[in-house]
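Possible race condition, two jobs.
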Amino acid sequence: MGRGVMAESVELKGKRVLVVGLARTGVATALFCAAHGARVTAADSQPAERLTDTLKKLQAAGIACETGSHSEETFLAQDLIVVSPGVPADSAPLLAARAKGITIWSEVELASRFLRGKLIGITGANGKTTTTSLVAHILRSAGLPTILAGNIGTPLIACVDDSRDDTWTVAELSSFQLELTDKFRPDIAAFLNLSPDHLDRHHTMEAYGAAKAKIFANQSAGDFAVVNADDAATLPHVPKGPAVYWFSRKEIVQQGAFLRDDEIVFRRDGQEQSILRVEDIPLVGAHNLENVLAAVAITLLTGARAGAVASAVKTFAGVEHRLEFVAKVGGVPYYNDSKATNVDATQKALESFDGRVIVILGGKDKDSDYRTLRKYLRHRASRALLIGAAAEKIASQIAGSVAMEMVGTLDRAVERAEQLARPGDTILLAPACASFDQFENYEHRGRVFKDLVHKLAEHASAVSQSAARQQGGR
């Protein structure tokens, strides 16, 4: 039976729907609601001149648009408010609407009411994108109809029309998407880990963890929950309703995926299967081993064959902006981990290398504590190059752990890294910060970094070829 039959459906025709936030998710949501007969208003706090093309598209679909400051009257005149991930759930107009009893959902809640087939939801502070991408890669390689969606790029609402009763939809889910869910229920839900992040938005670790744990809230006995047995912060959120499967690189688990003698093993109802050897995994770093263990557990629970799972893991090339090898310049490798937008992710990136890392840190602070990086910088890094709005805070909190320089911008950081680097070094962009002080998003930051590195590589190649020609002409 498809999810469209099982889920509690919602009738949009004739309903007054307000969509708040007009980035990619908000636009897709507004157009979806209008196509289903709703009377849609789309609102964004940005001025109209920054949204010209977006407003044209929405107005052409008969959607009323409100830009600039939010009007509480507009919020209070709705049957349903759908909030984009970038909009704080505790903003004043939303609190007023909630007090009046108006339904407020995230886009993934709305999408789940229409989505057909089976749904896999994956959340966690780190590793979501790699694990979600790997799960989709495995399922496609195993021949299962698969949709990849959510926080990874394509809004879940934009995938509804492509879903069928035999489809597996694999969705990366952020705390922002989950906190405003109501009946949202994945068939398989994974909570990878929990570490400090987004405290500028959630304010406390308790609230952050509770938002992520909503991924389990509506699961029942026929569903599966996949949880990290090695992550103490996640354990208080283990659900009671679904069947729980674990993944661990440190211990043997009763149900789930674990390591034994450098081999990944999956255990279910007392039966064990050897899946693949650690040496066959193409991704670097202990955290990526955890991501693979989670993906193995998730995909085997879909019914995918063990051989197909193993083969797919071996061919997974990784994800852009996640410990992504960019190029070697002068024998020195450059890695792009722009997705390391919090301290824990940067720690994991540093742990992936043996030492002598020149690391680029900084960006927009998220109320983070950078002092926990000190021991990793002391043992793994030779230099920290600090950029962006958080540079002074980072410098004060990591002082004494590693030599550091305030370089301001990413282009200057790459230039300085090349000047400092010698054979045996690694250059790593792992900012531990959001990107919004100098870039549109972490993808934009990562692309700029890669462009700068490729230009360095081209210049180095041109110099080398010129020197070779001069040598040959003698």
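Job #2 (started ~2 s after job #1):
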Amino acid sequence: MTSSDSLEENISLFLYKNCDELKHDFLALKTPRDIASLLEVSYERLTYHLYRVPESIKYAEFSVQKKSGGTRTISAPSTALKILQRKLSQVLYSIYDPKKPVHGFVVTRSIVTNAKQHLHKRFVLNIDLQDFFGSIHFGRVRGIFMSPPCNCPEEVATVLAQICCYAGKLPQGAPTSPILSNMICVRMDKELRNLAKDFKCTYTRYADDITFSTNLSNLPKEIASIYPDHTKAVILGERLLPIIQNNGFQVNERKVRLQHKSKHQEVTGLTVNEFPNVKRSYVREISSMLYAWDKFGLSSAQQKYVEKRSKELNTSEDKFPPFRKVLRGKINFLGMVRGKDNEIYRKYLAWYRNLSRRTIKD
């Protein structure tokens, strides 16, 4: 077999069994050969892509700019490895039972369902976990496969972890990383939910974003409090912080925020004072993009947008997707948050469609 003998040439891209069948087959795994059978690939191909393909070919690494500043490293698997991971993620979704507080990487849940849990609250506390995927190392991944509900033999768990990990940790960019991160966080989610319940608070997690909220007159000090000397905005409570640390994560102290109802409250990027909503600046940006396209044409609008964003993010202009795709994505997101009957959403969608038809005619 050569490197050009690609996995995707001869196998399907997805598994076509239902969840019960996938769960049954997964729980019956005894040997690495069973893994190959589960993923519908020959054992020789599986071992080739795991052990013979160089690490430099398995993944392509690149950086993307964060809106909040700094960069995020994405490790994108090769097509062949990505197919294996995509299939394995299907299997893992049949195993994982998402609990109520978890809203990230869960079907039918989103940043909107996450934000709705914290509407009309006196206090909203936001916590960000530092290097979320990078904190989940190979040993933790193998351990989760060996523990309930997976209960895989050690040899099987090792191979499964090798499929999912890169450079000894979960790569941000692999199809298996989101579902595995949720499986890793099961114990932490349970402990934080119980903590919230003890002190009449609401707890949710969306990936690495943790939120507590309450209508109590004061946020319980066991969860968080304000520094008396105001040298820092917030100090996390003696009950909360150890739970996060004992589960193998660290808090990004720069992104800890305690928000009172008298001020702007935000959860996973959405305003939650009255109802889930995007920022006003987001709506203005959509309007500006539509206006630029309407007045100056698509090509000019694209160029001006790319120039502006590349300066804001200090990155190359060739790294941006097409203007129309970005704009449609923003309008769709507005509709998801505000609802498809929202007047502004319907107005912008109609404007976009009219411009698209006009552009085709031209």
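The chain is about 45% helix and 10% strand.
Logs attached separately.
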